[in-house]
């Protein structure tokens, strides 16, 4: 902040300035209405005719004038104090306002030159909105200055905090709608203030915009008294400042003074902390509660029904303008009430004195590089994975906890990127539980509430973000990535479903962003799903669900990757690879418990680069022709059980020719036309054969494997075992038995599927079945797995 | 409440009563520790030996003593005032406490007689906990008195309010953990007070249990000052009462007095409202903030590290009791500190004076029928669907909005069940938008904040629950169903993903409940997903996602059903059917826009009962042999496009033999071994042929159809089209074109797949391609679909 804040008297917006900001606001409102309604005649230079009006009126007015009001006032303070500021538009349907404002400030036409700053450009601006081949009605990737899609509500504030972390000069103005404020994720997001450090982070200025109504209802917060609102937000730890009213000039003066006060308070807090203040509690940041009418400045009444300041203004306040002359008259009067001739010059360009109100260059919120984070992104420095390699002399000889090894690698990423302060680890209170605890050798959990003498691994400057809300973790991380940084999210596998919908929306954001050349790539969002379905020993059924990847596999192929690495070294390769990618969502599934290690680092690298490979060391097929059976596996536990099954088969039926195939890049199972990583058909056919039985042990729901491979030649011979929703709190091996994914079931299935073998090997099947019975008895008596299972080792 | 509350002086718990309640609490704590640790020697009648201790210690102590403390005090007030009360245990790992308390009060042994009230039973009680074949470590369906699984956090309070609605005599004590309090859904749930009517509903008494720590972190709310907490909960609209401390007897006295005060306040509010009070604002209900140490009464320190009152007590406070004599000593001292000999008699039964503290019969929280809602459930009265039938003289001749018709049916369900007050409609502010508005002819949206003169369809006694939180809608509905009532949830299709994880957990609850004979069936949870992917005209990509059903299809077959009815009459049958089922989750997908109607009611009934059927009226195959192609469809828009494609094919290539198959019960596509509704293989083969091409137009992601049919004979000839994530704000028909699900693409695909036809019909393909081009030009110029598409009618 180059220009200091006055600390003496409250700021007063003089009349001339109020007049100007009001005209600017009117210009934005005019352009917003125009987008919703007009095909032509953008400046109303002739009377409005039916053919000027869009045949389908699709858009939302209600929230827009308030958003425009805020934008105009933020412009003023950006100029006054030379602020680095971005605008997050929480209200879902604020698209027309965001587009209008970026058009007014010039950033829109810079990105989309065909939407020029003249009459022809304004006509295009209007026409394209909610029109086939045009732009959506929300703030979206297409909208300059946006890092937040306004479709699904609830994530504005979490995105805002994510953007503010580690960016000390940034102010994120975040408008929260009162509809959105009813959602769970938003209600929890207010507590983000407990994780923001005034010394090293930027700041979020929340603006709760109460316009009182949703689609067809009052809002819960809109009908609360000021007293309750003040209590609520004081309780959340803020200092709420109220701006309420409907009379424009009073509101301009009130908003300007309140914004100045908020910025002054922010500045004071930052100065205090940056000059060595070390309060043992969170600062009380300001926030603004703005009460303004829904559909402000729009038609007061249509067909005798109240519209302004009511939910009827939510969408298109006056609907039949093409057919109904009275409605058209209401629209025309409404648009002319903004006096477009006072706003735009004869060429249709915003008048000079109004243009002068917008910030310039990268200070414009539509051109601020923070909202196109790829522009600011620095490559993440990563250490050599070989430095963390688990020594594996021969397959299965070593035991290790995969995620624990990964924790060491993550620790060193934190170290290597310390000076850039652009990497954080996110997770809901589970970093340690997920065995990534090595990161605490070099950093803490960030915590801004009281820290007590006996607390451990807790600090003001921690780079591990833990809060018991998957929504917050995901939202913060998205905001952090979208503003050009890097991160890593570890989560219990089952509970990642909590953010299914956020994942969906982020995938959509990426899909659209990648189609926009001006949007620069951002770092991928990488999940580690651990504490997975097969090892819920002390949690049970409620914690078992491996279905997140099914959702992921629905998304556009070039956006998503799914990796279930079989051991620690392959996990290292996968994590390292994922962290170096951009514009993707990577899902890694790996266990945290001690498990046998199969691949030395060199082999792991080769295996992971291939994505799917035959494990020759585990196979006993001859060099010529095809094996009798392919034992395929994906995921750490299924890999172990498959190898144990192969061990059983080789001992019991040595003449059997077995091929072992391991899958580490799950989407490589798809054909290449479906996914860029898809194995070519001929390679797939050679690997999985075209006619031999394939017994596939898979980590998750078995259907996914069928769905990925249905186009493959040998699909009819593919027999998949996975999680079939059996088992609760029990031993690790018993979980696999209950779901029939264990070594005995796999071996029996192989024998049953090989033509003619079942008759010859009936005694083997009998012996294996007896083992299953023995297991059942043992585990129920002793509460742990029988020694021959626990102590099993691969020894071929 | 039969015994009135004293209104004069604060309640004082006398010393004798405090001594008794303390012993009761100790007994529960003793049994909780025993469950976590002991295999044998349950009453410590000999010194603790390694073999008495479980080999794998899996359980959670930290939250348990607080839960036991609350339970003991709730028992006291239930007896004192003859209260109808249930206990919702929000903290995830409170299982040992809930089990211990239901065992102490006798309800556990009534349900599970083998866990008897003697030494042998106690030994079983201990052994079964977190043990293979035993019970999970959470409150779960297996736990008497529970309607809430303690696995995934966030839904306790929403469940509690759902249970309280329409049950005026019920008090739902809901313990919210401070970990859970950080989640989004819980943070939003506090606002449920704005939807609870003191005159007709019961009440929730929230008890925020701040024990300060999660797995490895302080909690956000635990570290907040009392002042901030008071502000926060006052802001939410409550009157927070604080109980804080660690000294047991002071805490007993404080808790008893506070509970009395809370109940008195509740009583006063209820009396006021039930005697005609009509305040234009919510009452300020009491809530309790209980601060007590995590791991209270457990080991203070282990291996020199602080355990009690810190996160180290979260799970198993002292871990190596089998191997390490010192640890075993800590455990033994800890258990003996409760003085089991003062608690249990020589037979291992709770001493008589302590037994007398528990309520009796159905007043015991473990035996209260509200927590086994099927016991209280009355059948829903439903009108005859024929009364709402859309007249369909011939297929396609009529147009109707399916959900609008359904709204009339729902309206009359509301009327028919008015006197039982056991049916509500839930949705996030979308009942009207989803065209179910007819319900407002007979009821309102319930609203307990201020109602203004110009508000419409808003009232204190409304039976439509609207809040902009899918989490709250789902949580309330679950609580309502679990306590024996009925409901209906309508939601935008894309945003139902917000509750993916809640759906998962409810499906798990049902799966386990169905295995427990004592749990009586509850009504099914029925979703209507509308405003679906194909008609997001003014929303666009962010609102497009038909993938919820993919998640649903992962669940146990006997729990889930998925229906995409093709028109209004079939929607009526499906909804009526779903509302009469129990212990299931039904997903109905149907559009809200005007669409052609295909089936008269009689035909719709026949079709829906079959689940999948050949539409003879749309087919032109001869009577003998197989058609050239099967045109299959599922969902309203795909059905329309399929019929339009068939129309094109029949006009262009009249000699082509076409069969039309429509699917209304999606899971019938699976084989019968996979799903009880699965079509038998021979029927399927006759319907879909064994070798002819099948062009399948499906509502959602095409993979689901492959996954459901991969075992079917003709799977290799199945070509599925569906949503492939293309399109944003555009016209309805353009959406289908962008995803290649439109009539032209379908017709071209059929021609291409019929052996030998492509060469002969190249000119037809060319004509169809030209139509696609024409469409593209038209829609981009006019912003609406070309007349020949808009006006198309089935006329065969």
TrEMBL record, chains A, B:
Among Gene3D superfamilies, the record links this protein to: 3.40.50.920, 3.40.50.970
Looking at the record, the residues that make up the Xylulose 5-phosphate/Fructose 6-phosphate phosphoketolase C-terminal domain are 592-794
Tell me the keywords, alphabetical order: Lyase, Thiamine pyrophosphate
- In this record, what's one Pfam family? XFP_N
Stated EC number for the protein is: 4.1.2.-
Names of required cofactors: thiamine diphosphate
Checking PROSITE patterns in the record gives: PHOSPHOKETOLASE_1, PHOSPHOKETOLASE_2
Q: Where is the Xylulose 5-phosphate/Fructose 6-phosphate phosphoketolase N-terminal domain?
A: 14-375
Q: Does the keyword Translocase apply?
A: no
Q: HAMAP family, alphabetically?
A: Phosphoketolase
Q: Which family does it belong to?
A: Belongs to the XFP family.
The name this protein carries in UniProt is Probable phosphoketolase
Originating organism: Sinorhizobium psoraleae
